[in-house]
Every structure is written in C-alpha cells, then in structure tokens.
C-alpha cells in the first residue's frame, strides 16, 4: 500500500511539473510575441551607436516590451536609401534626418506629424530653443525634433602654431583680428615641408564634395548663394568670385591648403586648421600627439556667418508600431536623450546647452573655447537653403568645384556656368 501511494505521488508530481512547464512555455511564448522590435536609422559612427545602445538600456527599463535595432547608413547614401525604402513601404520606425532632406521628405509625406508630444508637460517642449524648431515645423505641425544644431567651427593644431611662432585663431579672435585675410596669411605661415613631409595650413573640406564652409566666406562679405525666395542663383557675384579665388590661391599658389583629392586629415597632425561641425569632436578627443583647440570661423565686413548644420529625430509614416515608435522618439528627444547625445552634438535644448555636462566631457576643449566657437555663434549662422530639388542643385555646385580642383576653368567661368545650369532647377 505504501509503495502504491509513493508511486501515485510521484506520478502526480510529474504531471504537475509538466503542466507547470507548459504554462511557463505558454507565458514565455506570449511574452515573446508581445515584444515589438523598432528600427532606428542613423548615419552615425561606432561611437554614436554605442552611446545610443547605452542610452536605450534606460528606455528598456520603462518599456520592456520594446526592442530597438540600430542601423547605420553612410551619410552620402542616406537620403536615397530612405527614398528607396519609402517606395517599398519599408521605412524605419524612427531615424535621423538632416536639414537638406526635410523638404523632399515632407513633400513625399514620409515624415509623421508628432505635434501631440508638445502637449506632454513632462516632455517640456518649451525647453527647445525656438529657432532650432523652424525647420521641423510645417503648416502648423511638427515633423521632427532637432538633436544637433552646431555652427561650423575650426579645429586647429596648437602645436603647429607654436612651432611657427604665430598667434592662434582664438588669440586673434580675442583682439577682434580673426578675419578671412588673417586666415589666409596664417595658413601660409604655418605650412612647412615638402612632398610626403608637407604640413598644410588648412583644409576647408571634410569630403571633397562637401563645400559647406565656402558660403560662409561669401556671406561674411555681404554676398548670397540664392535669392531669399530660392528663385534665382546669386553666387555668381563679386563676393562669390572672391570666395573661389581664395580657395584657388590657397590650393595652387600658396599651397597652404591640402590638395584636392588627397586625404590628409586633421588627426594626422599635418593640417593646421580644419573646418567642420562640432560633432567631429569625437574624432579629435583622442588625439595625444599634438595639442589642439577649437575656434570660430573668421569674420568679414558683415561679421561671422557659420553654417548651422541641423539634424533631427523623426518618426516615419507606415510604421507597424506607431505608438511604440512615438514613445522611442519622445525618449530620444527628452532631456535625458539630448543630454546623452550632447557628448557629440550641440544640443537644441536650452537646459542641456547651458549644462556643465555638455561642457565638461572628458578631453573636451576649455569652456572658453566652446563658448567662443559654439555657444556664442549659434545666433549668427545660416541654415542650408531648402529646395525639394536640392540634390540636383548640389550636384551642379559640386561639379563646379571639381572644375576648380582640376583647374579646368576660372572662378568667373565656373560660377557663370553654375548660374546657367542651376537657375532652371529653381523655376
């Protein structure tokens, strides 16, 4: 009898365990089915992706049923890639959008309106600097949140300046003497060596198709690229010709500028001054072979006019999970999200821009340099012209610079040809 009871008990335990396993399996399966995977696209570096992955751990704590897959697409291919994905109804849920992409994306109706998040008191939409939002507002709606609003700046090799016995850009700026004329002279003065040992005073192009610094020279002398209503090309002017002549002298007469097509970068220690956005600082913080700092662009008679490069966070139309996508966007654009990304980008939230956390990132330049080159210049800059055919317009401008680089035409001839080809695109 005891043996029979023992066997019966063991069978009962086994059955209960089996039921328990089945129940656990069912619950686990249900839980797995409830997990939503969102896609978040960027053109960011490994450092940017690592920052987001760490940041998202906090998002997962509040939203355990959401997982985010980060995809990085090269910046040069990003706009075309998203246009192709839109045609196939395969857009990501959330992603980065650069300022020049906004007109096309809004015109093609692939950006989702997100005005509802402005009503969330905890989100504190009023913390965003109003001027940074203009690009993302259309017909009374909001279509993105800026996370990066940097003015173009100069990274400079302090060691090269010291070795040449030349005042640095910040020293000249402090005296009110940091002009484009001084920039040209200084670049010549700090250039040394020949052949593979050549050290160049300047590099004004990150990529040879990226001419973003050059309009600043024109604007600072009172010129324009386009009419205010984007109906005519205005760079073919005395001021525009002077800009192209400056570049021509530095590249081919003084040889103080890195030659076209050569990839001598700032980090190598062979470039004295390099112009790019503040986000490039992630590449510079690890430099130990020479001393470096940042400075504002030079000024002309009309002051300094740096490009303000904007990038924003947007939710795309057609998401299978619109509610979860909006949660992700709201988190990335929150104070927490913008604070995290401010180690790479100039923040659009006032509270973050003025915070010690933004200034005191490890291996950052001194506070005085960041204030001089970045914070104080945010009200002086310009945003790229907006036109739905900007890709075609940009292609013609790049073609013009290619002719200058190849010495195929004079600045006057190049700008006249640009005007002839671009004006029809503006009609």
TrEMBL record:
<protein>
    <submittedName>
        <fullName>ABC transporter substrate-binding protein</fullName>
    </submittedName>
</protein>
<comment type="similarity">
    <text>Belongs to the bacterial solute-binding protein 1 family.</text>
</comment>
<dbReference type="InterPro" id="IPR006059">
    <property type="entry name" value="SBP"/>
</dbReference>
<keyword id="KW-0732">Signal</keyword>
<dbReference type="Pfam" id="PF01547">
    <property type="entry name" value="SBP_bac_1"/>
</dbReference>
<keyword id="KW-0813">Transport</keyword>
<dbReference type="GO" id="GO:0030313">
    <property type="term" value="C:cell envelope"/>
</dbReference>
<dbReference type="InterPro" id="IPR050490">
    <property type="entry name" value="Bact_solute-bd_prot1"/>
</dbReference>
<feature type="signal peptide">
    <location>
        <begin position="1"/>
        <end position="17"/>
    </location>
</feature>
């Amino acid at each position: 009898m005891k043996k029979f009871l023992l066997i019966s008990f063991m069978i009962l335990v086994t059955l209960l365990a089996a039921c328990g396993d089945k129940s656990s399996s069912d619950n686990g399966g249900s839980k797995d089915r409830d997990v939503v995977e969102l896609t978040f696209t960027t053109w960011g570096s490994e450092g940017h992706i690592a920052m987001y992955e760490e940041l998202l751990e906090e998002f997962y704590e509040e939203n355990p049923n959401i997982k985010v897959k980060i995809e990085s697409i090269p910046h040069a291919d990003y706009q075309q890639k998203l246009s192709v994905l839109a045609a196939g109804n395969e857009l990501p849920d959330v992603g980065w959008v650069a300022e020049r992409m906004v007109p096309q994306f809004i015109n093609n109706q692939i950006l989702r309106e997100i005005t509802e998040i402005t009503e969330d008191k905890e989100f504190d939409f009023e913390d965003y600097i109003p001027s940074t939002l203009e690009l993302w507002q259309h017909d009374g709606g909001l279509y993105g949140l800026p996370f990066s609003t940097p003015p173009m700046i100069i990274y400079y090799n302090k060691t090269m300046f010291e070795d040449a016995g030349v005042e640095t850009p910040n020293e000249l700026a402090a005296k009110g003497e940091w002009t484009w004329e001084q920039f040209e002279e200084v670049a010549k003065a700090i250039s040394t060596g020949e052949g593979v040992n050549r050290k160049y005073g300047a590099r004004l192009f990150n990529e040879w198709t990226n001419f973003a610094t050059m309009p600043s020279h024109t604007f600072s002398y009172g010129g324009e690229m386009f009419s205010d209503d984007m109906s005519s090309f205005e760079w073919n002017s005395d001021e525009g010709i002077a800009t192209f002549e400056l570049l021509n002298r530095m590249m081919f007469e003084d040889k103080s500028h890195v030659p076209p097509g050569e990839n001598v970068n700032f980090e190598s220690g062979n470039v004295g001054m390099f112009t790019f956005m503040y986000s490039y600082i992630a590449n510079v913080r690890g430099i130990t072979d020479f001393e470096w700092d940042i400075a504002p662009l030079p000024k002309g008679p009309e002051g300094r006019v740096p490009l303000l490069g904007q990038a924003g966070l947007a939710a795309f139309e057609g998401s299978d999970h619109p509610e979860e996508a909006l949660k992700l966007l709201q988190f990335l654009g929150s104070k927490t999200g913008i604070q995290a990304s401010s180690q790479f980008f100039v923040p659009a939230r006032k509270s973050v821009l003025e915070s010690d956390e933004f200034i005191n990132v490890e291996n950052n330049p001194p506070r005085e340099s960041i204030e001089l080159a970045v914070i104080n210049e945010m009200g002086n800059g310009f945003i790229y012209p907006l036109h739905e055919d900007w890709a075609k317009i940009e292609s013609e401008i790049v073609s013009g610079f290619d002719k200058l680089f190849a010495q195929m035409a004079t600045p006057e001839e190049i700008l006249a040809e640009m005007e002839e080809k671009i004006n029809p695109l503006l009609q």
